[in-house]
Amino acid sequence: QLRHRGADSMVQIKLTYFPIQGPAEPIRLALVLSGVAFEDVRVSRDEMLAMREAGKLTPPGCAGSQLPMLEVDGKVLLQSMAQLVYCGKLGGLYPADPWEAAKCDEAVQFIVQDIRGRGIEPTMSMSDEAAKTKARAELQDTKLPEKFALLDKMLEATGYLVGSSLTVADLHLYCLLNWIGMGTLDGVSPDTVLKFPKLTEFVKKMNEMEKIKAWNAEKNPKLPWC
Question: What's the pTM?
């Protein structure tokens, strides 16, 4: 039984996702950095489809029917951004101050919606190879550098996106930069990140955190810069 002692109670936490990073990785890292024990379940696509067929991904009172799925004392929470906020609060990685919390949400939405959703994801479903090659070239040469320049600037003051300490926004940034750095996107060079000194320093700093280093050694041995 994997449990975390909160201020008032013990909770049992289980996180289910595919055997990749995806939207679950910031959540995993939030729990790891917070020292919160959790069951890290990784399922295949066939196992996910079986879960869906059995109704396990559509529990009553939940908005959604997909992974990742977070279970807290048997209660289910869907939607990765809600899951990350919850897990971030467990370990003090989500700001208590309303303004800083809003700025944290702003940074997360910029990464998830503007960079991943509007920038990268449309190129992943393109069947026309010529169009895909052109779109990836635009990503590498224009779109990503524009977004990365903004993020690089945000890190200048403290080395973190919001305030003077680590937040869930930084976890999203870390996962994004690692994804790009792994060379996963054909036509987008991992060196795209290295052109930005603050982003590069940030990734190296995160990699040197003992809990992240141990986690990566076990779960993500092929990450760049490790």
Answer: 0.92
